[in-house]
Specification:
The complex is a heterodimer of chains A (219) and B (231). With 219 residues, chain A is mostly helical. Among the domains of chain A are: 68-151, no CATH class; 176-219, no CATH class. Helices cover 42% and strands 0% of the residues of chain A. Chain A is built from 10 helices and no strands. Chain A has helices at residues 12-19, 26-35, 47-58, 68-87, 91-95, 118-131, 143-151, 165-169, 181-186, 192-195. The longest helix of chain A has 20 residues, at 68-87. By secondary structure, chain B is mostly helical. Chain B folds into 2 domains: 12-96, Orthogonal Bundle (Rna Polymerase Sigma Factor, Chain: A); 102-227, no CATH class. Chain B has 12 helices and no strands. The chains are: A mainly alpha (219), B mainly alpha (231). The interface between A and B is large, with 68 and 91 residues.
């Protein structure tokens, strides 16, 4: 062991070269090259899924992709219930026991993104109905109106117009700052990872031009 | 310049162009990036979570697919970003597994198998035939900090600064860890070529955590490191 050839001594400079894909130690070079060899088929099995996800993301401004089906379901159920109630002249009008019946409301009065239970959504609608200006009070309550209300796209909790992500932080936006988690929240949708049960995430796509681009991604 | 040890099928400039195109929504460019990085990412994730690596990388790419259009940076930054997501997903996976030390045991077994298989076979001809799995097993037999540093630099292709950011350590610390790992790997190869294969005691020394309580080897312990931002 003590008579190991000097050529086998690994200097820091040689180690750096090896780590950078160069270096002259053939044995180490072979190990590192083999470890970093091009991908095999079994390592690329997820390509179709990743491609589909990328394609799907192009059609959605929503950072959250798993919330939409649930909201649609809630809206569908709610609309069905309310329409049925309207047709029978019963439940819906009784629930909105104001002289100023809630007309089809502005988008910002849509169901809040944080509400998932139908009862909660109805409660929000009733509370909102009390705040609707009287200019709408003469609008008749119709099933179509209620359906339109229920099926409107979910609006942000504030009246601030929603900013598509592509405008908020795309490279094409030039000097537009990379969206921070706070900006994402301000767009009205919940944090993307919240849907996946990882609400503590703040993974921000950013390059090395930022002071600590990847650090933002860490929790 | 990244440590592009991998003989990539796509050149670095092409990948830079692919990154720009993918950020603009080009699906084929995204696939090119995937094919370049996914194998490296999977090998790195395997070092962290073993058999769950495929799930971890799949989750990582879903995140990347969703947010790539908002990415700003060059190819090195992209690799660092994706690797960081992957690492965090691996940490989540380890946590959800309840800190069971399955991974550490698996890695040790793989490493032992690799050592046995490669013993006295590391002549030049054998090295030429060295397979990816076996090479990875040799690297994974290193102490975990060193193995992770070597993987990030030589396999994932990160430069020292980006690797340090991913790990939440200083670049100097990552550089030292990678150097130590390579030196230890070189010593092992030397010993085998000299016909004096390392003993199990040597291997235990190389992997001091192996005889330690399982909790010390759980990959989640690795994952907690980057939360301390390098700053």
């Amino acid at each position: 062991m003590a008579e190991r050839p000097a050529r086998r001594r690994l200097t820091p400079a040689e180690a750096d070269r090896l780590l950078e894909g160069r270096g002259h130690r053939r044995d180490l070079r072979a190990v590192l090259d083999a470890a970093a060899a091009p991908g095999r088929d079994r390592e690329l099995r997820g390509e179709d899924v990743a491609r589909a996800a990328f394609a799907a993301a192009a059609f959605s401004d929503e950072p959250v992709v798993r919330r939409r089906p649930r909201l649609v379901g809630v809206r569908t159920i709610l609309a069905t219930l309310v329409v049925a109630g309207t047709a029978s002249g019963g439940v819906a009008i009784a629930a909105n026991d104001h002289a100023t019946a809630p007309a089809p409301v502005a988008p910002e009065t849509g169901p809040g993104p944080g509400s998932g239970h139908p009862a909660a959504v109805v409660g929000e609608a009733r509370a909102e109905a009390a705040r609707v200006p009287h200019r709408d009070s003469d609008t008749p309550l119709t099933g179509a109106g209620v359906v339109a209300q229920c099926c409107d796209p979910p609006a942000p909790p504030t009246s601030t117009p929603r900013t598509p992500p592509a405008q908020a932080g795309s490279p094409q936006a030039g000097a537009t700052p990379v969206p921070t988690p706070a900006v994402e929240d301000a767009t009205g949708g919940p944090a993307p990872d919240g849907v996946q049960g990882q609400t503590r995430r703040a993974e921000t796509p950013a390059g090395p031009k930022r002071a600590n681009p990847i650090g933002d991604e860490d929790r | 310049m990244p440590a592009t040890a991998c003989t990539a099928t796509v050149s670095h400039p092409d990948l830079e162009n692919a990154l720009v195109a993918a950020s603009a929504g080009d699906e084929e460019a995204f696939v090119a990036l995937y094919r370049d990085l996914q194998p490296r990412l999977l090998r790195y994730a395997t070092a962290l979570v073993g058999a769950e690596a495929e799930d971890v990388t799949a989750d990582t790419w879903l995140h990347v697919a969703r947010d790539l259009r908002r990415f700003t940076g060059d190819l090195d930054g992209f690799r660092g970003w994706v690797t960081t997501i992957c690492r965090n997903r691996a940490v989540d996976s380890a946590r959800s597994r309840g800190r069971r030390p399955v991974q550490a045991v698996e890695l040790s077994e793989i490493a032992d198998l690799a050592v046995v298989a490669d013993r006295a076979r590391t002549d030049d001809a054998a090295l030429e035939r060295l397979g990816t799995d076996r090479a990875l097993a040799l690297i994974l037999a290193l102490p975990r900090t060193e193995a992770e540093a070597v993987l990030l630099r030589a396999v994932v292709g990160l430069d020292a600064a980006t690797a340090a950011t991913v790990l939440g350590k200083r670049a100097g610390a990552v550089r030292v860890a990678a150097h130590r790992g390579l030196r230890r790997l070189a010593e092992r190869l030397d010993a085998e070529q000299d016909g004096t294969p390392q003993t199990e005691a040597d291997h235990a020394e190389a992997r001091p955590g192996r005889s330690s309580p399982p909790a010390q080897q759980a990959p989640v312990e690795v994952g907690r490191a980057p939360e301390a931002t390098d700053g």
